[in-house]
UniProtKB/TrEMBL annotation:
Domain (Nudix hydrolase): residue spans on this chain: 1-127
Family matches, as InterPro entries: MutT-like, NUDIX_hydrolase_CS, NUDIX_hydrolase_dom
Alphabetized UniProt keyword annotations: Hydrolase, Magnesium
Organism, scientific name: Rahnella perminowiae
Official protein name in the record: Pyrimidine (Deoxy)nucleoside triphosphate diphosphatase
Length: 131
């Protein structure tokens, strides 16, 4: 089974997190997620996240810390999703592959229909906030 390494950004701003809705053209259309994407060969996870956030949202992100990893089997592949905190960014968000975004409190994230691999990431994030 092929394993695909993917990174996701938990972008923080004024006590809220950014979630993005997948557009209708892609896999898991309409679900909410933490933005990010595949790690390319030879690329570190933080570097991949910075690149992906530029490609998907046209922002320059400051990656500040690892949150958690989740694994989800999807068809004939294993998706290993690594969540990272992003404490800030420069630029204006311009959506390239999402239909909308929302800034929500961490507790509100679970009220959205999230992509399955993102659920363990927000649960780990909430646990870290509680400690």
């Amino acid at each position: 089974m092929k394993t695909i390494e993917v990174v996701a950004a938990l972008i923080e701003c004024e006590g809220k997190l950014l979630i993005a809705r997948r557009d209708a053209s892609g896999d898991q259309a309409g679900l909410w997620e933490f933005p990010g994407g595949k790690v390319e060969a030879g690329e570190s996870q933080p570097a991949a996240l910075v690149r992906e956030l530029w490609e998907e949202m046209r922002i320059n992100a400051t990656v500040t810390g690892f949150v958690a990893t989740s694994e989800v089997q999807h068809a004939a592949r294993l998706i290993r999703l690594h969540g990272w905190r992003v404490s800030g960014f420069t630029g204006t968000i311009t959506l390239q592959c999402h239909s909308e975004i929302r800034w929500v409190t961490p507790a509100e994230v679970l009220s959205f229909e999230l992509a399955p691999a993102d659920i363990p990431l927000i649960e780990a994030y909430l646990m870290k906030l509680a400690t």
